[in-house]
Records
---
Amino acid sequence: MRRIIIQLKLLSKINEVFVIIFNEYIIYIKVGKKELKVGGNLNTQELYLFWRLAHYFIAVQEYRIIQLSKDQNELWLEKMENKNVRVIRLLCRNLDWSNWLQRDIELTSHNGERIRKQLGKGELNVLNLYFTAYPPVDDYHYRIEKPFINPQTSKTKVNSVIFERENLPLSMEKVSDLFQDTISFSIPEENIDQETERLKHEALTTAVDKIKAEKSMFEYGKPFFTYFFIAIQLIVFLLLEVSGGSTNTETLIKFGAKFNPLILEGEWWRFITPIFLHIGILHLAMNTLALYYLGITVEKIFGRIRFILIYLIAGFGGSLASFLFSQNLSAGASGAIFGCFGALLYFGLIYPKLFMRTMGLNIFVVLAINLAFGFSMEGIDNAGHIGGLIGGFLATGVLHFPKQKKMLQQILFLVVTASLSVGLLYYGFHHGSKLLNEQSTLFIAQDYIQSEQWDKASKVLEGYVEDHPDSAESYFLLSYAEIKMNQINKAEKHLLRVLELDPNMDEAHVNLALIYLNKHELEKAKEHANQAVRIEPNKAEYKELLQKVNE
């Protein structure tokens, strides 16, 4: 071992000072009998420990690299899923004085605070590891005994551990306790440089491979059908506007809006066509913007074909839920768009750590806001939103991820999806009258009456009044259809029910007067004719009817 001894004399002290330089270029000061280290280059043992622990954190604990210094002696790692230790900082450097150590801990705290703000975390625990041949020459223990808390926000905590030769087992024990694991390894006596390089290469390669694998999850497919569906929405909206208006009920029904009476009549395509219709420019703008952001993400993750199927199946699920739980006319891509949320939730189910680290919080917040908005505002078909969300989730479970197969799981999702769809359709078509409100029933019945389809009008109205016996207007239209079909006794019965509900409906009195006149029950005919004239004294046809009865 090469040794150079330089003898110095202090002006203020009698003690002789010796500076000893070893072949590792580690410098010591000897004052009397006390020997203190003050500097030197890094030792291969410390570099080995540095990369041995870095390899453990990256390969075993699955931490990700935030930053690596140019000299590769400082490494920052993060794993937001580990609340106890979200960030690790490793530094391989000889520590000379404790005041430098304190400044470095404070700097580490400031960097940790910056990371905390960028990630939007409430609190951040940083594990700060030093790898040095020897500790600082002066007293330093009090600086690392307790975690250092950032004085500005008190939200970033730095727990520092020094790995040095004399206390290596104790330092290992501290880190092991933090991770609830036994971290133990020996330092090789031979070929330590080669082993260090191997560990470094494996750690960095593993980290890069993980980054590439995660990045590839979001870049499987290039968006195409997202833009295709947006184009269809715009084209159909223009057609609606030139055909009568996108807010016109008759126009929407003509173009395929979800309308329960017509679905019950067999127009099953109305489970799909509403996806491409929008009611008003604001509705179109909001859904187009949502489709642009969500559709692109889903199409990139799952690919084009899977995106088409997820989008259409989710749209069907939204229309089916609206059919069952909303009696109003509805249209819009909202169900299909919520299906994109469902697809991303499935992504979170399979890859929860990656999901929460990349988009999870934002997805949950946006989804919650949209559902809350739907429940709190009138005129929004939240049943369709929830149906689309469930449909998208189930469809994604059936299709799974590109180039991946989980046959048992996919079959289970398929069975659940098919069973749920068939069961809900069966219920809907066998309890159709419960899915109609008065407005839609009267609308479709009047349409049938105008086209002289008396039997269809009668069928729709009979089903409705069976479950809604208090609708005077429905009974009246039913009686009108029955008169046209020469079912006079039924018409008489239903007209009397109309007058029970609404004694001042003049048209019901007129029709009853005509029925009784034809049946030669003149007193009853005269009574109802008089009532019609009393209610509407200015209608000449009512006076003519009364005169005819009197004659």
---
Amino acid sequence: MADYLVIVESPAKAKTIGKYLGKKYTVKASMGHIRDLPKSQMGVNVEQDYDPKYITIRGKGPVLKELKQAAKKAKRIYLAADPDREGEAIAWHLAHSLDIDQDSDCRVVFNEITKDAIKGAFKTPRPINMDLVDSQQARRILDRLVGYNISPLLWKKVKKGLSAGRVQSVAVKMINEREKEIQQFEPEEYWSIRGQFSYEKETFDAQFYGVDKKKQSLHTEEDVKNVLAKLEGNDFHIDTVTKKERKRNPVQPFTTSSLQQEAARKLNFRAKKTMMLAQQLYEGVDLGKEGTVGLITYMRTDSTRISNTAKEEAREYIENKYGKEYLGAERKQTKQNENAQDAHEAIRPTTVAKEPKEVKSYLSRDQLRLYRLIWERMVSSRMAPAVMDTMSVDLTNNGVLFRATGSKVKFPGFMKVYVEGNDDGNEEDDKKYLPELKEGETATSTELNENQHFTQPPPRYTEARLVRTMEELGIGRPSTYAPTLDTIQRRGYVALQDRRFVPTELGEIVLDLIVEFFPEILNVKFTARMETDLDEIEAGNADWIGIIDDFYKGFEKRLDVAEKEMQEVEIKDEPAGEDCEVCGNPMVIKMGRYGKFMACSNFPDCRNTKAIVKKIGVTCPTCKKGDVVERKSKKQRTFFGCERYPECEFVSWDKPIARPCPKCQQLLVEKKTKKEVRVQCTKCDYEEEPN
């Protein structure tokens, strides 16, 4: 038997670490938490300083038994869970279950699973940090006090199966408030004039700017006509040509939040998927003869700093690969924002020497895409700024001013490796060239297009935008973003439409009740302050019992009021307008966990149910009998299929349209991207210009 026992959370992590430690070490996995609060009861004694009642998690008995047997035979036990609050709590629960002295040097932490990091960590074990444990306990107990007190109220007053959470409720509130902003938004009309100009056989575009060197807005079509009436012919005088050099700095390496946002923009990944893949890359991937290797550093962090060793390695790589001119000067490292804990390094590759192309054959497609994103972001962050040549040109005709701007890359710098995406789904356009225009000469307008526009309401939250906003407001922490988004969707309080959050009727009902009776839970500043309090506990500057007590005293009073005054909300069934095909009784529309559905009114004698589908006005191209309807996959992705399924198996991810291809008479569909909607034929090469 080995002399030392090391306990980690997952088998993958155990496999990777075991490779570096040698034969004297046995590495086993606890499969996450061993103990937790019971599901069947509150598990918190509010009369005894909020003393938690922990029990062995159902199904973990065999795992705990195996760990106890291994512990009896080991000379020494090391607890090597993840380097955060949750990992510290897992280690503390293991110490309690295995009779390990928590004040002994039993805790080992590392930010990356590499040979040097593991060897170094085992040279400097430490006691369990009870400040970290207390911070995790405080969060767990707070969430239990909220959830296990409000949820029974909702079961009694609304319907069974509902629940409420502290951070999740704030996220739902944000989505609902954004929806109200959109509904109440009143668009305002405005116009623009875009001109195409010719100069020495080259063409370029310019926008109307103003009159007599003053900026002027165009609010109505009459404003446009007044401007165009001032023009005298098609020749415009080139008044000024301003050339400048602009530097564009690289962005910092990834934090948890920025990784989730960029993976959503560039890879179309949901937050949950991003974190799952990052966990796999962190814990280790089998690289053939090299064995299992951790490819990235710990993926739950709000810091953008990186180690001196990583900086030096990146410098050597950049100099060898691209040349000295591509090396960036040392920039001052700053925290991501005022709420950042800065406990760990940024998310980066454990070594830049492992280029994505070198590990491509060992990774899944999605693992590779995420690894490449992390690798490119880290390398580019150590590179020189890009240098842009910019040009701004003012053209006038009888006082009417048009302005053209353009830029081109003079020196790519970091852009040779990576350019950050944005929420509009594209990268910054730095290839908008202008011809070499000269002051005092003339350019000719070949076309002037007047366009009517209307101001747009604020956009619905995507996952990326919601995570960014939560981070800016100080709601939640790196480890909570993905679980929060997943929870509010699973509970049916919000739904995703075209990858954007919309509130459900059920979510609005529950939110209104919580707003009325528990306003502090939905107060953004209150929730952010609670996160700061948890950070203070972690830092050893606050007592966890006192912070919970301050919250619970007011919360308990509101509970008493809610018990007496909260009215029952009846979610009535709506007639569906059709009869059950099984028993002939009327069908009704019911509210379920994932939205509305149809069910037989003769329930429970008849349990026939079916989804509510939306016809799109297109006859099925396969059977020519049924209508094409909009459906949802298990992952809530929209697709289109024949209403006669399973008799007819026609299905399409792209929306069919109600006219045939003019070239071959086959099916036309709408191909959607983040930038445009394009109509294409499913059989031939016919394609229409995007709208």
